[in-house]
UniProtKB/TrEMBL annotation:
Lineage top rank: taxon: Eukaryota
Organism of derivation: Aegilops tauschii subsp. strangulata
Pfam family, one: Methyltransf_11
UniProt keywords, alphabetically: Lipid biosynthesis, Lipid metabolism, Methyltransferase, S-adenosyl-L-methionine, Steroid biosynthesis, Steroid metabolism, Sterol biosynthesis, Sterol metabolism, Transferase
EC number(s) on file: 2.1.1.-
InterPro entries: Erg6_SMT_methyltransf, Methyltransf_11, MeTrfase_SMT, SAM-dependent_MTases_sf, Sterol_MeTrfase_C
Record's GO cellular component terms: endoplasmic reticulum
Name of the molecule in the record: Methyltransferase
Gene Ontology MF terms: sterol 24-C-methyltransferase activity
Family: Belongs to the class I-like SAM-binding methyltransferase superfamily. Erg6/SMT family.
Biological process, per Gene Ontology: methylation; sterol biosynthetic process
Length: 213
């Protein structure tokens, strides 16, 4: 199969999917640095014959109609300024009847815009993930339908996950201090990281606003 990764980053899922499925995967990304790094990684993984990257905007994809057998997006199309327009582009480049799978940051029906704690949590997720406004699950599903897709399955994976979605970010989740990630999440590690980023921002190495993010 010929598969499209929409907003692929440096291609972590792209490489894993290519390994276990033997599919040919094309990653679409508008960031030149990430594409360069992703290409290095697929070369190291020995996947350059089946995987490649294309620089482009997922609102205006540089592919002809009916190009791919499947498409997926992982926390990517939530950055689209127009969800319907983005999903329509994915629909256009897929062959008729072929599937798209994606997961997104969404606000569930439990979100109460009148609850200050809910609003604050939403705002911090938006800030940390570079999102203008997190859409509701209902809005995302309607956008998928409006783009011409049929919804086969939709699920909030946080509802019955064996581990909480935030476990990789939790300093009390059992990560070892001897690992880089474990130290980074510890109280001391967070203080060190904060001090380093603050210094980098003051020196102009990191962009303004990095400490806040």
């Amino acid at each position: 199969m010929k598969v499209l990764d929409v907003g692929c980053g440096i291609g972590g899922p792209l490489r894993e999917i290519a390994r276990f499925s033997s599919a040919s995967v094309t990653g679409l990304n508008n960031n030149e640095y990430q594409i360069t790094r992703g290409q290095e990684l697929i070369d190291l993984a020995g996947l350059s014959k089946r995987c490649n990257f294309v620089k482009g905007d997922f609102m205006h994809m540089p592919f002809p109609d009916d190009t791919f057998d499947a498409a997926y997006a992982i926390e990517a199309t939530c950055h689209a300024p127009d969800a319907v327009g983005c999903y329509m582009e994915i629909h256009r480049v897929l062959r008729p009847g072929q599937p798209m799978a994606f997961y997104e940051w969404c606000m569930t029906e439990r979100f109460d815009p009148g609850n200050p704690r809910h609003v604050a949590a939403k705002a911090e997720i938006e800030l940390g993930n570079g999102l203008v406004d997190i859409r509701t699950t209902a809005q995302c599903l309607q956008a998928v339908k409006d783009a011409g897709f049929e919804v086969i399955s939709a699920k909030d994976v946080a509802e019955d996950s064996a581990v909480p979605w935030y476990q990789p970010l939790d300093p009390d989740a059992g990560a070892s201090w001897t690992s880089a990630n474990g130290f980074r999440l510890s109280r001391v590690g967070r203080l060190v990281t904060h001090a380093m980023v603050k210094a980098m921002e003051r020196l102009g190495v990191a962009p303004e606003g990095s400490v806040r993010v």
